[in-house]
Amino acid sequence: MTILDVTRLPMLARLADAWPAPVSAAILADRGGFSEWALQPLEQVRAMRSALRQPHLMRATLIENVGFDCPPRFPFNQLRNIALSRCVEQRVVIIDVDFVPHPADGSLPRQLAAFNMEPQEALVLPAFDVAARVASGSSAASLPAVIDKSALRMLVGNGQLVTFGD
Questions:
Q1: Is the pTM of this model over 0.85?
Q2: Is 90 exceeded by the pLDDT of residue 112?
Q3: DSSP 8-state symbol, 75
C-alpha cells in the first residue's frame, strides 16, 4: 500500500513491478484545467497500469486534489486511509512509493507471511540505500540477490549501504 501524486507514477510502476503481490495506491491528482478533472490523470494511470508485468495486481484510486495546496498540505493521512481501505489482504505493507523492496526475487511477501503476528501488530522494516547511488545521484543500484543479516552488517560496515536518508 502506498500513496503518491501523479508526478510519481513512474516510481509506482517500479514499485509494482518489484512487488509480486497486490498493490493498493491512492493517487492525488490536480484538475489541470480540464472540464473532466480526472481525464488526463486517469489516462496516465491507465497507461502506467497497462505497462506493468502484472497489471491485475494494481488497485489504483484516483483522488481529486480539492484545495490541499500541495506540497505544503499534502493529505498523507487521508490518502493512506483510502489506500488501506482498498486492501483486502490480511497483512499490509505500508511503503513509500520511492522504495523498492529487496530481495528482487519477490520472496519478501513470503518472508513477511512467516512472521507470527497478532492483528493490529506492526513490523517495521529497515530501509537502506546503496551508497554509490546516493553519491552519484543515479537511480541504478545493484545488490546481491540475497542479503542475510551478517551480509547486511558487512555492507553497512564497509560503506556500501547507508541508512535511508543519509
A1: no
A2: no
A3: -
